[in-house]
């Protein structure tokens, strides 16, 4: 077949062949796509996909699973029983809700929550999203004892009886919103409470307890709750932590392991990959000579039946090197592998890391067994760039031979070359590699691989790369097919006769194919139209305009989207009408695209499985029985009330430092620290006035020791705009010997005349924090904390007096650094969504605030010797507070003189407040940061003071000099501001918040 087109031999030149001619007149035998018959293949079927794939739970009749959002039962004999009635949209998940009469099944997506009395039968709508899928969709669903919890996109939970739909309240539960819950029986369940974290109950919610943990530090991670059989687990990506209700304990997170030897292959595939096997078979599968299609995701490969989704056999991928650290959990990191069958073996290219693709080989005749291989290897920069032909032949960018000396790059890295397979399946580099254009969706889009190792592309195409000088509407440049291989020089065919008046840019849609007679076929997009190009071995080339808005060739198949769906099973030789295009309620206005393969066609959420004749896609599913029992609330469109910090000037205090001028600021630091003895040994790290954990500026100078790797001393400096002196405070301390030369200055915190510098560096898998507490006239004190690397930073607060501690929130504990130098864990923070705030500590007690969404709880914890790190639950001793109006701290009233209670310094960014001075509002619409001092006493709260930091404002001739910082203390009735720029002043003010 193909040897008549091009004969390749190492010892001789290719045989001569007739030169093709060009013509724009279609031959008389051009197929009539409106009357051609579908191929005589098994009937194709339409399948919906695009949503969740996972194992739900075992049932007597089989194991309930979701496959692309479709319900199915995997039976003991390995067969699959599909759902009987479609839901209006595929599902994102299913849960088993315990009731006194047994488990009830619910399924959900963004649009609705359904109850299923028959696992595969008709759905009953329990909840609908408001303005389905747009304004307020469903974001999460949980199972409680006899009820289902539905969270909307704003984090608000709606609790409904699973039988009646009646709203429920959590009587006797902690008065804190739950953010996740999962019960396995009416008694035993796990709940994640906002700001508190995971809690377990064994009596249906009458009492809750914070569980012990094998690794307490792991509870700082954000996680979900999941169910595997009868077990509830904490879930984070590929990692699971078992929950033991009897011992009130959470185990350590470990990567889930799927025992393929003891599991049904289909269940093993779903459990390990959470990927719809039918969808993957069509998009990335390679037909296996023994039947089925080979697919692979991450760490598993399978041979599947694309018509049913049954996995015939599965195998682990040894080329996939997994990371086993919890801080890299591979969140939803499902990466499909590129599979290819060559005459002598199979190849699997699997992306396993950024820029890295590993290769595995397998036999095309024996059982599925993967073995790691060094070559050929796909380049990580071109992980999707594989041009492939059915029954063998492929082209890609990567590494397929030992590099030659002249190929080596300056950096010594192995060069990326163009690789192609030959007639016997060997893969070797093409040298010299031709210049191929690139397209964002794939570097080899518009390239064809022929069975004998020949590569073909269209030379002259303009749209497959970004050409900034291309002028739309300009004449199309000369375009022609070019063929080349490892053994022959490139050969260009005659130019293509595009229709007269056709305009560019031009783009190849999909690959270039070759039919049984050797003719080349390509879909080309011109400006405003798509044409089908057919170039035979001899005779004229034809260019046929198509009444279509999308078309594509891929892997020997073709698809045209227009008024109907037109399909070609033979690389463009013949076409048949497959009926109207499928509709998708969630994408009513979207333009359909189609991706053909040997197994079928993928288009949006529809899969056409097979290439035979098929009934039209299923009509819209019948509406579920009865109206929905509840609808999520309509989201409020009201903007929060904007408050104004209104101030009036009361006179100049003195000169202010130009903090927002980098050069001037550092000149001030240098003057205060003195002369620098050796400039090349000096390194600087700074935190600016609008950064960090407080509204002050600080600098760290590190002076290198003789080894040049560590520092011998640090000079620490601070400028505090809350003071009106404008002075630079300076301290010098010896640097710890095991700290890198220049650690990060994370924050500078001040209270009274005490300053805390927070520095950190990485040491292995831990963050190491060095705290330096400095007071004028006293030598600085230092201590060290080691923190688990959960990605967040330490926050700190301190009292103004020398006998009061420094309190640090590490994400796991509130740690008090006492005046005697000891460290004490004051409170255990159980996360993962913990937002505990430490207040201004006293000598013997520490106020703690749990700040939630529309609620807060406060308590004073002891700091004395022997005090235990108490968990928040069951909230004994905590005072709950709910703001009288919606909003955050800015919505609270200001404190009256004599206000008492716990004091907290809290921050909000750019929310609900504007600055006005002498009746003129700030020109900066976004206040950079707000720092509130909030008093909490007996369930009420008020604002004692506020600090406002602004970005640089524009100075205008008709308005006063702008301010960069304003602080107001409402109880003391004091306020001042700091003007921008060199020559600015501290200004005394009178301020009100209204």
Characteristics of this structure?
41% strand, 994 residues, disordered N terminus, six-stranded mixed beta sheet, mainly beta, 3 helices, nine-stranded mixed beta sheet
What does this structure look like?
This protein is mostly beta strands. The strands form 17 sheets. It has a 9-stranded mixed β-sheet, with no helix packed on it. A hairpin with a 2-residue loop joins β71 and β72. Residues 1-31 and 464-468 have low confidence and may be disordered.
Low-pLDDT stretches: 1-31, 464-468
Spatial strand order of the main sheet:
70-73-74-75-76-77-53-71-72
Q: Name the quaternary structure.
A: single chain
Euclidean distance between termini CA atoms:
86 Å
Number of separate strands = 77
Q: Major β-sheet, in short?
A: 9 strands, mixed
The structural class is: mainly beta
Q: Which radius of gyration do the C-alpha atoms yield?
A: 34 Å
Count of individual helical segments? 3
Shape: globular
Q: State mean pLDDT (0 to 100 scale).
A: 82
Proportion of residues in extended strands: 35-45%
